[in-house]
Amino acid sequence: MSDLRIGLALGGGAARGIAHIPMIEAFDELGLKPTRIAGTSFGALVGAGYASGLTGKEIREHTISVLGNRIDAARRLFSNPDTNVWELFDVKSFNKVLIEGSTLANLILPKKTASEVNKTKIPLTIIATDLTVQEEVAITSGDLREAVAASMALPGLIQAPKLKGRTLVDGAMSNPVPFEHVADGTDLIVAIDVTGGRLSEEDNEAASNLTRAFRSIYVMQHQIIKLRREKVNPEIYIYPDVDEFRAGEFFKVRDIMAAAKPAKEELKRALEAAIKAHGG
Question: pTM for the whole thing?
Answer without folding.
Answer: 0.87
